[in-house]
Backbone:
């Protein structure tokens, strides 16, 4: 790259927003009406929709988790004013795991009662969380942030640790009940309130 | 989040625009040419296209309804200059239902003659409409809007109530004729003219 | 809408760019590797890729035609500085036909040797072209453009007429040869050079 | 087009970012859980995920290669301040090959052990690389760049040659081992470090 440090983060933010918008919207493709055989009546449709409830749940969960990651990134780039090649690469590898979420969600939507499917989903989120934490750690160490107090840096660091912690907690819960392990992510919402 | 109120709504608007653009474009994926068996001639294609007319109608209806919701949001964020965590969450839950529209549309496109399919579609739009109204109510109560008269706030509130009203009207019409119930949404266009 | 005329076209341009980017990229979904039965060797793959040539051609054609429409819109909104509700609606109906292009393309990609499929594609482009011309006509009549000479207005009007003319020319050619009728669109590139 | 040279590249950058974001996210659609027959247990899921490893690899490779192309374009448009019709067309044809990457990736993901599939993928990347080089060559020859030293122009030219070189290297390697030929792209990362 011809320059070591770019003085603008506009376009990386556009790419981030684009990939999040698409990944969040692609989640809906996991919701499909199965091929129905005749005769089809209202009772059939209600039965189909009832059968889709686990998939609606995983759709909503993944949508909200992606929104949380987007929101954390949003607040990180509110402060980050410069970017260099390593930081760009951290962001790209992070996006690689973000764009993988529709696949992980299709797995838990279909086989959410199996530990293997849940652990794959949790590992995907763990990777996103750890890379998000690394992104912030690197950017603050390199002083790419302007007008930020050390207290604010610290707060975002703690929020960044909560996401991997929730993923690890979810992995632990899969040994008790794969189907309910995702409730671990509710702890993020509680945790975020404590540290705000 | 490190700050309680952000002084900018740029990136949330980018996410909103992105999700709308994708949801509106994904609607087209419900239009598919069925696998045809030989011999295939022009008459076959015309028959296929004729058979797709209900799906073209639901495509156009959902595209236009999403455009209306986008337009309402557009005019809301024309005035909203600040955003806090609760407002961000209202927006995200609202987007969750926006991104669900391609699925609801696939349901009415396939089974539009059934009340169950239509009611699911209408409930989806009802949720979008109510959350859009809540978003505006919250933002104006919190004084996140600048340079706006109370008359303008009131006007957008009435427009926001028209969308849920149309969805409820559509639900009522499904008891008479599921296939024609969507005409209820035409009342929005009439209603919007009255209050402009 | 609370205001009759907005003094900014930023967000409509974002929606337009988003829908074009998605529609252009979704075109690739029409290119799929068919399910192959064993044994699969290089000769099978080459045969598959050869068989896909008509689909590659329609992919490239639609991609380039969408790029032309985007470019024309680009130059229109370079001058358009204000937008009102009717102009917004013209843009939305125009986008509805833009987002339909991946479907029309799947039809010509699969059944490009049939007149019916080609005419559907051509009618789709005709609608896009006419709405684009209407958009420009309306915006210039309403004086929503700044710093533009009447000569420039006229030039864009002529470019706008070339697109529907090419679509009509293509429809005419389908009566001679459906498979080759798309060559009519090459006349746009020639025509554009004449009037530049 | 009414003007020969536009003094802004904002909207072309938005289109570029949009198409990259979508193409990068669509890659995930190549990862699908096959239809499983009962009984399904954790061992089945682990076996499925193991079987998907080649597809995960091609997903990651294509994601990262697209990110590299995006990054190179990012640094090119950091300097390019004006655009004319030929430059717009180079960009559009370049995007046409960028949007083709999800298809090429599906081919290598499915038939990565075959030379034919790998060569198609490599030719796709070769086209992207050559058009990217042409874009930069044209823009610098036309002096569309501001505030750039001839040294910086030269550096980006060399980076632009590395991408086609890696694609040619990969094509060469397919004659030895199709499955491992993609490792040629690792040379870009090494090469980029040398010339930074």
Residues:
């Amino acid at each position: 790259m011809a320059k070591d440090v770019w003085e603008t983060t506009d376009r990386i933010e556009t790419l981030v927003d684009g990939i999040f918008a698409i990944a969040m919207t692609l989640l809906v493709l996991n919701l499909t009406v199965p091929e129905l055989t005749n005769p089809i009546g209202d009772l059939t449709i209600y039965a189909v929709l009832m059968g889709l409830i686990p998939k609606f749940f995983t759709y909503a969960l993944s949508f909200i988790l992606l929104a949380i990651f987007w929101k954390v990134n949003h607040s990180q780039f509110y402060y980050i004013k410069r970017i260099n090649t390593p930081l760009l690469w951290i962001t790209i590898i992070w996006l690689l795991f973000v764009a993988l979420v529709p696949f992980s969600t299709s797995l838990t939507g279909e086989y959410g009662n199996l530990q293997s499917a849940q652990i794959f989903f949790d590992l995907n989120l763990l990777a996103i969380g750890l890379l998000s934490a690394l992104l912030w750690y690197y950017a603050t160490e390199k002083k790419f942030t302007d007008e930020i107090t050390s207290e604010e840096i610290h707060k975002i660091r703690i929020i960044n640790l909560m996401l991997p912690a929730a993923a690890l907690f979810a992995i632990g819960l899969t040994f008790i009940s794969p189907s309910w392990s995702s409730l671990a992510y509710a702890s993020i919402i509680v945790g975020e309130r404590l540290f705000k």
Chain B has one domain: 5-195. Strands of chain B lie at 5-6, 83-84.
